[in-house]
Amino acid sequence: MTSNVKSHDPDHCAALEDSDLLLLQNKAWSQGMVARDPKFFSRLSETQKPKFLWIGCSDSRVAADTITGTVPGQIFVHRNIANVVVHSDLNLLSVLTYAVEHLEVEHVIVCGHHGCGGVKAAMSGKDFGMLNKWLLHIKDSYGQNYEALQAMTDERAREDRLCELHAIRQVHNLAKTAIIQRAWQERKGPFLHAWVYDLRDGILQPQITIAPDHKVQAPFRFDFED
Ligand code: CO
């Protein structure tokens, strides 16, 4: 515990106890992992060779490792609000480049989820200030499917469907990058997947898979010389 804690402030202490609890749980987790697999950390500290890149929502309920029953070392992760794949996002492009070109992941999964706050916000028509710029990427998915979605009378079903359509659209955005197209040409990988996680039952629902032999539409297709 740090020495400059305002011990007279009960709220402050309670908040600090929350973070202390995480550290305590971490010790227990670490000990449990070593008990099950004594070489787990010494092996992982040398290198990582994950087969998967996960591009998911930042939502606290959709934790990639936990919901897939995997452990550290298996999934390389990028998360942002509403699992957006946008070609001007230097963070996403850096993660994608490293995962595809250096780690040579075999699968890239874009995982949306039903009940996504970002999707709901984008559908609401409300002004969210600075967030509007990010939500516009979701609104693009909404606009592209607007008539079909408006024809759905149940509001929750409409939101769920946009979560699915949005995840599918982001996977197509991945296919438009030179990073993915070059990897497809050079090593016949990775596969691209759109999945949607249902908060109500914890089940991942596959939407589409794009295989490395996919023919990208002409305006978005790169012709590599080498
Ligand atoms: Co979300």
Provide a count of the helices. 9
Shape summary: globular
Helix content: 40-55%
- In the CATH classification, which architecture of the largest domain applies? 3-Layer(aba) Sandwich
Q: For the largest beta sheet, what order do the strands appear in spatially? A: 2-1-3-4-5
Q: What's the structural blueprint in terms of helices and strands?
A:
Blueprint: H1 10-36, H2 40-46, E1 52-57, H3 64-67, E2 75-80, H4 90-102, E3 107-113, H5 117-124, H6 131-144, H7 146-150, H8 155-175, H9 178-187, E4 191-198, E5 203-210
Parallel strand pairs: 1-2, 1-3, 3-4
Antiparallel strand pairs: 4-5
Helix pairs in contact: 5-6
Bound molecules: cobalt (II) ion.
Features:
single chain; 226 residues; alpha/beta; Beta-carbonic Anhydrase, Chain A; 2 domains; five-stranded mixed β-sheet; 9 helices; 48% helix; globular; binds cobalt (II) ion
Describe this protein's structure.
The protein has a five-stranded mixed β-sheet with strand order 2-1-3-4-5. The termini are far apart. It folds into two domains: 1-46, no CATH class; 48-220, 3-Layer(aba) Sandwich (Beta-carbonic Anhydrase, Chain A), CATH 3.40.1050.10. 48% of the residues lie in helices and 15% in strands. It has nine helices and five strands. Helix 5 (117-124) crosses helix 6 (131-144). The protein is α/β, with parallel strands linked by helices and 226 residues long. Bound molecules: cobalt (II) ion (CO). Cobalt (II) ion is lined by residues 57, 59, 82, 113, 116-118. Cobalt (II) ion binds next to helix 5.
